[in-house]
Fold these 2 entries.
Entry 1:
Amino acid sequence: MNKITLSTQLSEQDFIKANFYLYFKKWNSKFTFGIGILALLSGLFLFLTGALEEVPCIGLIFGLYLTFGLPVQIYFAARKGYRKNKRVSEPMLYQIAQDNIQIKGDSFESKLSWDKVYSVTETKIWILIWLTPQVANIVPKRDFFPEQLALFNAIVKEQKGPKNRLKSA
């Protein structure tokens, strides 16, 4: 039986990048960001072309908040979350087999059968093992050897439970 043993630890930067990825992967977040840019640019355009005699403060503030304020909030919330939740920053040992995933940290241990995994997603730099639509374990791809990543993809593709969002090899 093929089994992958993988040791990993998320840095604060990894956690912040993952939070940005998870926020901006949703269409409504992209839409909100686009509305912010549109509000900012239209307010500046109207003022600079002379269509308005006063600076449209409400539109500019709204645009600035959606374009810059939300990302700043995400950054600081992720930093705070990383520092407050010690489990996120613990070294973790993943044991991935055909029938389950075991995850061990300094303060916890869990064993999940594949039918309890909601989804598995692959990005350029992470493997996300989703336990629910809102909660994912983040595993940096840098911690996989190439043959381990290929075996992981093969194991996940054989499973019936999780939604498979892995890149085709």
Note: Helices lie at 12-24, 27-48, 57-84, 86-89, 146-158.
Entry 2:
Amino acid sequence: MTNPQTALYPDWVSPPGETITDLLEEKDWTQLELAGRLGYNKKHLNQLIKGKAALTEDAALRLERVLGSTASFWLNREAKYREHLARIEVQELNQRSITWLDKLPLNELKKAGVIPNERITAKAKPDLVEQLLRFFGVASPEQWQEHYETGMQLAFRRTRATQSDIGAISAWLRLGEIEVEKLDSPHYSQSEFKRALQRIREYTMQSPEVFEPEMRRLCHEAGVVFVMVPAIPKAHVSGVARWLNPHKPLIQLSLYGKTNDKFWFTFFHEAAHILLHADGKKTIYLDDLNSDCQDPQEEQANQWARDFLIPVQYHDRLSTLRNKEAVKNFSEEIGIHAGIIVGRLQHDKVIEPSWMNDLKVSFQLGNSNTSTS
């Protein structure tokens, strides 16, 4: 599990002083004589040769005149040597930071391709620290802690008290951020987003290979980034709504729960946060639909999603839907998938949780195929 970056900087990188020493031998000069030609005292030259004193632009020009080659050559030798020393120091810091790995969902990050799918040995851990710092885009575990454990966690609005594994949550959020970094979208338009949601509702009857690219396109045109990232179990997150900047909201789903009733409700729940709670642009709404949250904003988002999927004028009809045929007919009438209606009936305790589940569909992220649950 060797880091390819560190492999580019082998242990044999030497200070510029070794080249100076080689040229001294060729010319049969003493350090005292070279110091005089350079205009340095012998102590300073000795420190330069040993790498204790930095080789500056002025020194490079002097060496160019006295020993030959170019100032660029000498400066490049110095730069490579200093970078090599810095990387050695970083490797030592990474070695001291391996306990940070205990906070992260390493198995899930293997599955996501973030780190190699190999056994993690003690020897491999420092390189693994380096790879994960690059993944999170932070300079050190201390910066990760400051950004995620201290900073970002203050912005979390959670629907589940057990969402305490910040390592799992931060990894899942970061996977979404990386997907967003690949995209370029226009500024958010609330009116366009409302129109997009009406169109997206029509796609609940379609298969993932049809609706997923259309959802992305419609959201994109409204200035909303929509991504799907595989669930990380200890994160306990089915979806998140957040603003990456004042002009770019993000909806990120995990397919945690998998069935289409939960998928579509989660999507429209997160859309509601974007529409209704835009004042809280620094808030990160972490939602788990398997929890019972009493937060007013979560209740508002739940109610908006319920009414958007099944408009208020149809609510009285729900109690009459006692068999599959009635559910299918109602599905055709209001234009949403029957599985969503079954999920609503089960949630409202109109029917038992075990009834009509064969009308739902299970989604597999990254695979356009669906299967009945």
Note: The first strand starts at residue 156 and ends at 158.
